[in-house]
């Protein structure tokens, strides 16, 4: 995948916004394979300004922040672009978080391990009964830990939701 400099992206978007050509014309002029790149860059600039064109690399967002962004998007009935502007996060990232949340719940927002092939490594099989029981106990302890983490995350999400959207008190 070809990387484009910030300067080139900015120049192409300015040319597009100044009416110096269509996305297809500018893509051909600057030697890009597709006009969809130009359209994407224009969309990024419209939603987040020219700073959105910078390649920031990988940013690791905390779970609480991801939950706040997803909660804001789902409960305030705003667009991805508006949510992206509000939290200063790009649209595809928020879209991925929302999709993961809908598929897996809070687990979908958890940061992934850096070792992608960790799950593929074979673990030695326990040979004795005692080793099997120890492994089962460790697995249950890990599961309990995960459940507690999910519970705590839900509590935090509930607190954030209550702070952002206080319920109206009913008067009798």
TrEMBL record:
InterPro entries: InsJ-like_HTH, IS150/IS1296_orfA-like, Trp_repressor/repl_initiator, WH-like_DNA-bd_sf. Residues 9-55, 65-114 form the Insertion element IS150 protein InsJ-like helix-turn-helix domain. GO terms for molecular function: sequence-specific DNA binding. Residues 108-118 have a biased composition (Basic and acidic residues). Residues 108-135 are annotated as: Disordered. It comes from the Bacteria. Belongs to the IS150/IS1296 orfA family. This is Insertion element IS150 protein InsJ-like helix-turn-helix domain-containing protein.
């Amino acid at each position: 995948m070809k990387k484009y400099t910030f300067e080139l992206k900015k120049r192409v978007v300015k040319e597009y916004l100044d009416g110096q050509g269509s996305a297809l014309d500018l893509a051909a002029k600057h030697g890009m394979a597709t006009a969809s790149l130009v359209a994407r860059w224009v969309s990024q600039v419209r939603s987040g300004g020219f700073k959105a064109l910078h390649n920031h690399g990988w940013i690791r967002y905390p779970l609480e922040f991801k939950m706040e962004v997803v909660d804001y998007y789902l409960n305030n009935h705003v667009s991805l672009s508006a949510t992206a502007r509000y939290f200063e996060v790009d649209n595809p990232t928020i879209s991925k978080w929302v999709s993961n949340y809908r598929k897996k719940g809070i687990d979908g927002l958890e940061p992934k391990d850096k070792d992608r092939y960790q799950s593929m490594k074979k673990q030695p099989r326990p040979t004795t009964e005692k080793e099997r029981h120890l492994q089962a106990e460790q697995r249950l302890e890990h599961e309990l830990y995960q459940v507690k983490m999910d519970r705590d995350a839900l509590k935090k999400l509930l607190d954030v939701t209550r702070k952002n959207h206080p319920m109206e008190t009913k008067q009798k």
